[in-house]
Amino acid sequence: IEQTIWPIHNNVEIGIVKPAGALGLVYYTLDGSDPRLIGGAVSPNAIDADSGARFAVHSTTKLLARTFNNGQWSAIRELQFIGNENLGALQISEIHYHPLDEGALSGKLYEFIELHNSGDETLNLSLVSFVRGIDYNFPSGTTLEGNQFVVLASDSIHFQQRYGFAPFGDFSGQLDNSGENLALATAGNDTLIALRYNDKSPWPEEADGDGYSLVWTNKSGNADPNDTRNWTASHTIHGSPGQADQATAIADNIEIPRQFALHQNYPNPFNPETTIEFDLAKSSFVKLKVFDVLGRHVETLVEEHLSDGTHKIKWQARANVSGMYFVRIEAGEWVQTRKALLLR
User: Fold this and answer.
1) Which CATH number does 261-342 carry?
2) For 225-234, what is each residue's pLDDT tens digit?
3) Which residues, including other chains, have CB under 8 Å from residue 190's CB and lie 6 or more apart?
């Protein structure tokens, strides 16, 4: 067979026939694993085809086959049967890209990414794969029931030590602490989900090393994974893999502010870090700058277009001297200033 990828629309019956005169036994798998174990033994997942074996394929499946004769294996043969599954209910629901260290152990050992079936029907995840950011390929036969979650981790052993249960699998690669592109594709290489998260506002900055994860809320209602309004920091440190996060329910109850407002920074006085919170009644190009008592520009904290809603920005003032500072915000015609006191 020259063609290795076959689209299927209904049940397809497959027959495995050993050529006349061929020696040995044909072993095959339907879960995407190799019939041959490392070292040369027959995999426990392998099926002895025998001459004339037939079976039905009705959804996305990967078939791998080898011939075994006198202790020698043939080269592997691969066939992919691509079904027409509807995976629109699948979401990336949580990203823990910068976990806290555990003593001397790097936080990189505790990274995870969570997928959620937001629908009622069971989804077939066979051969669905992460093709950007991290690498992972769901084995043939993987399903996800309605309103359930599946978690992939960077290291299953350390993940289980922290969370008390094993992830579904381990991905290859690392989630970048400064943000990166993630892409999930179908077995036929069609893009299911593509997003770029970031560690800077308007993305939730608490997820960058403070121990929180990014949690999907779809607060805007537009289902766009690149809209920062649809993500929030997890309710608790270490996130909530394998279950709905409480922050999602909280985000559902948050209303868009009715007016622009720059709130008093907190703590105030501060040393050396303070949080500046402001409300945008509509999406705007925002400039948030700090000036000293002589009116000299000290630092620009924000100069970009932000979505409507409440935003929090941290000001790290380690390089500044003690004294009074003025925090000034501009968004369209709206301008407001607050005093901030740095005490060493």
Assistant:
1) 2.60.40.1930
2) 999 989 999 9
3) none
